Amino acid sequence: MTERRIGIVGAGFSGAVIARELAEAGFSVLVVDERSHIAGNCHTERDAESGVMVHKYGPHIFHTGDKRVWDYINRFGEMLPYVNRVKATVQGQVYSLPINLHTINQFFGKTMSPSEAKAFIQEQARTDIEDPQSFEEQGMKFVGERLYKAFFDGYTRKQWGVEPNTLPASILKRLPLRFNYDDNYFNHPFQGMPKDGYSKIVENILDHEKIELRLDCRFEDLDEEFAHLFYSGPLDRYFNYDMGRLSYRTLDFEPIRAEGDFQGTAVMNYPDPDVPFTRISEHKHFAPWEAEGFEKTIAFKEYSRACEEGDIPYYPIRRLDDKELLEAYEDRASKEQNVTFVGRLGTYQYLDMDVTIGRALDVADDYIAQG
């Protein structure tokens, strides 16, 4: 009798990392993905007209404080230095994000020192909000009404499609506020971009004799029994949406083609509420080591909307009123035999790539340890 193998749904980072770890431990693994390519929403490919490496489903910048994860991704591809310096066009002016001393001085027309700016922002902040529960409350307590309205309120409404007072405060707690001129969007010690794109890294991770990869294959169409299943698809889809659909946002991209350099930076946010898109990303700038070599460029206007049936789910909304349905699905998931739910969709959490890889390594370690 042939030993049953491990099934993995999804060929993104979660599925690929788990597959590789189990394969190296001697397990036979089948990885399936309903798309025609690997790497999930991290998929990268060369644009035929310009030659630019395009992040097909929007920008993915790798940053982490976890050396194990950094060493792991460098094992399968060459990571080159990249610092994410985001700009924002607000009311006809261009500012640096995250909000830093330059942003504050420029916005208020001042020349404050770090200590002066800190005291100034404390005066702006809503001190009556002691324990912020919503995104809006966190923003008012964080930077005060004027900066919140300019940089966060409109952008958030467009990105999430809901009132900011219905979103959890935790979304905004991820963003830094700096009283110096540091415009590096992230604080992590390890930051970079893959020289050959994310898809090449995932391809290398999946390159093992004990891993079978099957693309254009839906999980629902499999008839094989597995010793264990690692599922990185949407949590509610696993249960056929029979208790209702969890809320996601999806993205639409409108390409812009130009000669030379279109906007001079990788990401330009547009927080103003009367601008229909959230940001424009120019992808040649995600690879600064080769950006000057392209005569043509490609950028994308990014539009966010509610995810409907047939759309690609990007961001779990996790509204305060989604909690009950999520808990019901999580309760059912916990009772499934020989199934582990992983990744952004399988756990209905917004996860950065480094966290996704770290969790996948931990899940694989736990399974291997159980024998």
From TrEMBL:
<dbReference type="GO" id="GO:0050660">
    <property type="term" value="F:flavin adenine dinucleotide binding"/>
</dbReference>
<dbReference type="GO" id="GO:0008767">
    <property type="term" value="F:UDP-galactopyranose mutase activity"/>
</dbReference>
<dbReference type="Pfam" id="PF13450">
    <property type="entry name" value="NAD_binding_8"/>
</dbReference>
<feature type="domain" description="UDP-galactopyranose mutase C-terminal">
    <location>
        <begin position="150"/>
        <end position="350"/>
    </location>
</feature>
<keyword id="KW-0413">Isomerase</keyword>
<dbReference type="GO" id="GO:0005829">
    <property type="term" value="C:cytosol"/>
</dbReference>
<dbReference type="InterPro" id="IPR015899">
    <property type="entry name" value="UDP-GalPyranose_mutase_C"/>
</dbReference>
<dbReference type="Pfam" id="PF03275">
    <property type="entry name" value="GLF"/>
</dbReference>
<comment type="similarity">
    <text>Belongs to the UDP-galactopyranose/dTDP-fucopyranose mutase family.</text>
</comment>
<dbReference type="InterPro" id="IPR004379">
    <property type="entry name" value="UDP-GALP_mutase"/>
</dbReference>
<keyword id="KW-0274">FAD</keyword>
<keyword id="KW-0285">Flavoprotein</keyword>
<protein>
    <submittedName>
        <fullName>UDP-galactopyranose mutase</fullName>
        <ecNumber>5.4.99.9</ecNumber>
    </submittedName>
</protein>
